[in-house]
Design a protein that fits this description.
alpha/beta; two-stranded antiparallel sheet; 8% strand
Length: 430
């Protein structure tokens, strides 16, 4: 039974804590040991000093009966308060302050997530957030892999032995070959310690090393294949068979020249409406940033309405679905599913619609000179192009039928007069 906890499992833990489930119930649900659950919650919970509507943080045991005022003096940030207990800062200045500690926090589940008194409590709270817990866990893993793998005494020993030999003109290879048993570390480790400045000797003391240019390392794009679990095309089809009333969206990238700017396209097959967003780099973070922008502009209700499900391919830019699916507060806002490998026809609707983009931006043409304003103009013309499948209506008209005009207003889309539509390269040369 693995002790590693994924983000999805942390979301499950947060949900079950709120439902006041025991550690045993949570452990059984996610197939972990109950001690793992206990340790996870205690390690990755955060402390909040917050009150509730109309009342700030106040951890004093006299807060209910206190009649003191102006304890903060000229340092008070809430000039309108007559009683100090309402300002949230009196604890720092009041001479009569006596801290009240909630005993619930020292017993399982050690957090206030499922507490019925939380919405009317002004005491210090312990909160378990799946998003924050995942960030803390990743930081712990990252920090554990940084720095030297030995203590200061060992570095001092190596420094005292290696530095004089380097200053005598010996190479690291020479030193290592003749003293491997004494050094008890690798040759590469010695180079790393010199690069890090742990030794008195510097790279300038290595005659040959300073003559070489540092090797250029090719950046590796590693896709976490675990992101496909539960998000396959088969699972996508099962969902659509179960929920026949939802309208999924399709997502893809359109490449200009290698290494240049790229387009993120989002297509709605039931309306043929397509959105386009310019990105400087074809990275997963650039995709996440666009969805964060859409969520802010559209609002939760409208975002969830038009993006209930998204189907995409297995490109590396789509390899972080969790950051798209969930808000920063851990609230699910959409669901991502993937086509099978080598099966772009499974999202054939968006692939066909890309033909209209290629009429304006042929293959091989760089996108580096484009702006988002150029892309919006192009999409306005494409979405104003009548379609036979829509009964000769435009995607604008079909999209408006399902979702109204609110999306157009918030994203700045404008329908083009049908006789003014241009679908060729001269559109962006005007």
């Amino acid at each position: 039974m693995s002790g590693y906890i994924t983000f999805e499992e942390r979301l499950e833990i947060e949900s079950m804590i709120f439902q006041r489930c025991s550690f045993g119930e949570i452990a059984k649900k996610i197939n972990k040991d109950r001690s793992t659950i206990s340790r996870e919650i205690r390690r990755h919970s955060v402390i909040e000093k917050s009150g509730y509507s109309g009342f700030g943080f106040n951890a004093c045991m006299h807060k209910e009966t206190c009649k003191m005022g102006m304890v903060c003096g000229d340092k008070c940030v809430k000039t309108s308060c007559k009683l100090c207990r309402t300002c949230g800062h009196c604890n720092d200045y009041c001479p009569e302050f006596a801290e009240q500690v909630c005993i619930v926090r020292i017993k399982p589940p050690y957090v206030c997530n499922g507490c019925e008194e939380r919405n009317k409590c002004t005491l210090e709270k312990t909160i378990y957030s799946a998003v924050q817990a995942n960030i803390m866990a990743e930081q712990e893993i990252s920090s554990s892999r940084k720095g030297a793998l030995c203590d200061e005494a060992e570095i001092a020993r190596l420094n005292a032995f290696v530095t004089p030999l380097i200053l005598n003109g010996q190479s690291i290879h020479q030193i290592f070959c003749n003293n491997a048993d004494t050094l008890m570390c690798s040759e590469k480790t010695l180079y790393n310690y010199i690069d890090a400045g742990f030794f008195d000797a510097r790279n300038i003391d290595l005659p040959r090393k300073v003559r070489y240019r540092p090797r250029r390392k090719k950046k590796e794009f590693k896709v976490d294949r675990g992101c496909y679990i539960g998000r396959s095309y088969e699972e996508y089809q099962k969902l659509l068979n179960k929920k026949t009333d939802i309208h999924p969206a399709q997502m893809d990238s359109v490449i200009g020249t290698v290494g240049g700017k790229v387009l993120l396209t989002i297509h709605f097959p039931h309306t043929s409406f397509m959105m386009g967003f310019l990105r400087d780099f074809n990275t997963s973070q650039s995709v996440i940033d666009i969805f964060e922008m859409l969520y802010v502009k559209l609002g939760r209700k409208l975002f969830e309405k038009i993006f209930p499900v998204i189907l995409t391919d297995r490109g590396s830019e789509f390899s972080n679905p969790r950051m798209i699916e969930f808000t920063k507060d851990g609230v699910r806002r959409t669901s991502i599913y993937y086509c099978d490998a080598g099966c772009p026809h499974q999202k054939g609707s968006i692939e066909v619609n890309h033909e209209l983009i290629r009429r304006v931006l042929p293959k091989g043409v760089t996108f580096d000179n484009l702006t988002q304003e150029n892309v919006d103009v192009m999409m306005n013309h494409i979405n104003s192009y009548s379609r036979l499948k829509l009964g000769n209506k435009t995607p604008f008209e079909a999209f408006e039928f399902y979702y109204g005009t609110e999306v157009f207003e918030k994203l700045g889309y404008k329908q083009v007069e049908k006789n003014q539509v241009i679908i060729n390269p001269k559109l962006l040369k005007r």
